[in-house]
Amino acid sequence: MTQGKKVVLVVGAGDATGGAIAKRFAREGYIACVTRRSADKLQPLVDEIRAQGGEAHGFASDARKEDEVTALVEQIESTLGPIEAFVFNIGANVPCSILDETARKYFKIWEMACFAGFLTAQAVARRMVSRERGTILFTGATAGLRGAAGFAAFAGAKHGIRALAQSMARELGPRNIHVAHVVVDGAIDTAFIRDSFPERYALKEQDGILDPAHIADSYWFLHAQPRDAWTFELDLRPWMERW
């Protein structure tokens, strides 16, 4: 175990928001533990954090499988340090008409974006409660507040993760665990947006899409908040975004 070091665990550390959050916490001296189902895709992020003087470790883990989640948390806690901050950042935003949606895909989206949040947050919360401290942060979306046409599966999952966060905050807040939900409302600066929605991506020059590094600053802000003024829900959107 790395003596005296604190750990941030980011489940769903992609090339944009999740990776930016890991880098932000690493700059504050945290060991960044990042997960995806494929460890190979994490290597560029791990290398970048290490090149900047931070400590990072990548783990291949399926957040939908309880045994893998349990093993992941045990490995981190026993070999690296206590998980002081946990971020659930799995998206699964796949549009489809309700008339064409399949039961298999609907279930898979819920499993990835909601059920996996329960499994991972529960495993981490059990460790945090024993220490009487910690932060649990969930990445939400506008779909968690209102369901749009063509996004029934995603909206159901995101409504579920928001409800989970609310329940956990009410139960764990009095036990000194800060639980918060972040509504990310708007396009994020990613290769997907750049290639698939060039007109939207062009708004980047006007600060019209979200910068992952700025999103990450808000996650650090939530973690660093004094407990006499904790935020439960934070909305992030570009200044020109309609809501």
Characterise this structure.
With about 240 residues, the protein is an alpha/beta fold. Helix content is about 45%, strand content about 20%. The chain contains 8 helices and 7 strands; from the N terminus they run βαβαβαβαβαβαααβ. It has a 7-stranded parallel sheet, sandwiched between helices. β4, α4 and β5 (about 135-140) form a beta-alpha-beta unit. α4 runs parallel beside α5. The longest helix has 29 residues, at about 105-130. It is globular, with a radius of gyration of 17 Å. It starts with 6 loop residues before the first strand and ends in a 7-residue tail after the last strand. The model has no long low-confidence stretch (mean pLDDT about 95).
Radius of gyration: 17 Å
Under CATH, the topology can be stated as Rossmann fold
Beta-strand residue percentage: 15-25%
Distance from N terminus to C terminus (CA atoms, Å) equals 46 Å
How many domains, as an integer?
A: 1
**What do the pLDDT scores average to?**
94
* Low-confidence runs: none
SSE pattern, N- to C-terminal:
EHEHEHEHEHEHHHE
